[in-house]
Amino acid sequence: MYSRTYKTLVSIPPLLWVGVFLLLPYALMFAHSFWAVHEGVLVHQWNLHNYATLFSKPVYVEVLLRTMRIAASVTLCSLLLGYPLAYYLSFHAGARKELLYQLVIVPLWVSYLVRGYAWKTILGSEGVLNGFLQYLHVTHEPVAFLLYSPFAVVLMLTHIYTPFVFLPIYAALEHIPRPLVEASHDLGAGAAQTFLRVILPLSIPGLLAGATFAFVLSLGDFLAPLLVGGASGTMIANVVQSLFGAALDWPLGAAISVCILLVIISLLFLTERLEKRWSFK
Amino acid sequence: MVLQMSGATSTRRAPLLTIYAALVFIFIYLPVVVLILYSFNRDGVGGFPPRHFTLDWYRQLFADTSIWDAVENSLIVAAGSVALALILGLLAALALDRANFPGKALFRRLVLLPLILPGIITGLSLLMFAVFAGAQLSLFTVFLGHGTALISVATTELFAGLQKMDRTQEEASLDLGATPWQTFWCITLPNLKLSLIASGLLIFTLSMDEIAVTFFLIGRDNTLPLEIWGRLRRGITPEINAVSTLIFAVSVGLIVIWYRVRTRGLGAEAQELLERP
Within its chain, how far is the Cα of A224 from the centroid? Predict the structure, then answer.
């Protein structure tokens, strides 16, 4: 139905643009990771030195492992908050469903930075929470461990990603044909059994999509650690950022980025497979 | 597909679950409430309870020229990004929907990549590209970065719109002698109106708020998030609460507009269905 010219005209500009402004930059990052720096100048000399440094220095491996731990905690916490919320909205909210759904969406539109900043003012040693605890006479001295810790990073990122995890789970729950749930009840299954044998398996694709999103974006976050993480909350993206900034070793920074990218892409590949296996068609 | 649950099951009480859901809502809204509350607190950020109401921080904010310069920069970048991302996203969606070309699967994945990848990876790649191409970092590089990264949003939304669209209208238009160009302007675009508005608003807000990509592409002029970021590093003042409260208000305003547009659109569709003989 569409002419050859039409198809060419709509395909060429986005292909060219994406080729030049996305594919080429990503390829450049890949290339940089095999180059070197001599006395502060980039040398286009192909080698594997950056990757060797990366895996031989325990600092990098340690930060990478910590980052994985933080990202996994964020994913778990977001699921623990997001899943029951989605379940409640989908099965128990009744007429308030639509309104409550909008209420979950609204904070998504509120600036990431603004929310991070709000946590900083809540958790600080002069902050709102400490003021509150002292007001209630629970504590008499400010509790200092709240801010500038991995805990604060997990808290802030969980706050950011809970709505993102909620969305696909809610969509999956809404797509479950209700007669299936009723059939389960009619056939004598209790609420817990119905949940475990019918609802949970059918919501796995949504759960996987949400979890992947939270994990992947937490893995590459460098702003939360800068805002609320302190030295003990440093993550791998902070290392990359400082290599591109003060430390000025772009090739090593690029090599770490490529590693993050590979972790992410293999994860996406894996969850896509799993989602297909669990999807109900 | 919409299958109603019988009354007996939908009203089943689950008090524990309800309390848990309420707690999650409190967790989601706590920072926003604290932020707004303390923007009116004379004694600054922190401490409990907030005691003296004041509008001083807003007064200070309105007199602060560097914040307003940053707002202006952000608006320019966001408006440009909306235009760039919508045009290229529309073409990309049309290409994915209607054309076949080698590497189509790869192209689809590549376009969506900035949406899935952490901002630092896209930001750094674009930084390397800018240096490689010998470009000076400025608001223009920020605009190119935002526009390119947000093609992903426009493509997803518009592709979904195209998939839902009734092809027979376009067919009829072409059969009745309209040129492909006329068909595009008179049939395809109006059918995509809602998707265009929705993705436009989303791109606008995302660009206004973007920080990870901007961080690496910014020149001398700051966007609003980077201006705030710079101040956060120097220490926190309720002026930031005030500007954040305003950002929140504007975001909520945009959401309301978007729902108005959407429900009006749906209303028109429903009307049409009713009037159909």
Answer: 12
In the numeric block, which tokens belong to residue A107? 């904070």
> CA separation (Å) from B71 to A86, A242, B186?
36, 28, 36
* Single-letter amino acid, residue A127: G
Domain ranges of chain B: 65-234
Would the CB atoms of B28 and A162 count as touching at under 8 Å? yes
pLDDT of the residue at B138 = 94
Query: Which residue on chain B is closest to A142 by alpha carbon?
Result: B47
pLDDT digits (tens, 9 = 90+) for A116-160: 888 888 888 777 788 888 888 888 877 777 788 899 999 999 999
Percentage above 90 pLDDT, chain B: 47
Please say if the pLDDT value at position A97 is more than 90: no
Q: Which chain B residues are within 8 Å of A21, Cβ to Cβ?
A: 126, 129, 144, 148
How close, in Å, is residue A99 to chain B by CA atoms?
12
Are residues B140 and A21 in contact, defined by beta-carbon separation less than 8 angstroms? no
pLDDT greater than 50 at residue A46: yes
At position A46, the amino acid (one-letter code) is W
Residue A170 pLDDT greater than 90, yes or no: yes
Residue B264 is predicted with a pLDDT of: 61
Name the minimum distance, in Å, from the CA of A219 to any CA of chain B. 8
Structural domains in chain A, CATH included, are 51-278 (1.10.3720.10)
Cut 0.90: pTM above it: no
Strands A41-43 and A36-38: antiparallel
Which residue in B4, B31, B174 is closest to A115 by CB distance? B31
Considering only alpha carbons, which residue of chain B is nearest residue A110? B248
Model ipTM? 0.89
Q: Is the peptide bond before A163 cis (omega within 30 degrees of 0)?
A: no
- Taking 3-state DSSP, the helix, strand and coil percentages for chain B, each rounded to the nearest 5, stand at 80, 0, 20
Q: What is the pLDDT of residue B265?
A: 55
Token reading at A266: 């293999």
Domain B65-234 listed as CATH 1.10.3720.10: yes
Long-range CB contact pairs, B79-83, < 8 A, 24+? B79/B204, B80/B143, B80/B146, B80/B147, B81/B143, B81/B146, B81/B147, B81/B150, B81/B203, B81/B204, B81/B207, B82/B200, B82/B203, B82/B204, B82/B207, B83/B147
pLDDT at position B77: 97
User: Which chain B positions have a beta carbon within 8 Å of A182's beta carbon?
Assistant: 5-6, 9
Q: Which residue has the higher pLDDT, A217 or B266?
A: A217
Amino acid at A105: I
Q: What are phi and psi of B41, to 5 degrees?
A: -95, 125
**Closest among A30, A36, A28 to A53, alpha carbons compared:** A36
Residues 6+ apart with CB under 8 A from B251: A109, A110, A111, B205
Asked if residue A18 lies in contact with residue B152, where contact means CB atoms within 8 angstroms, the answer is: no
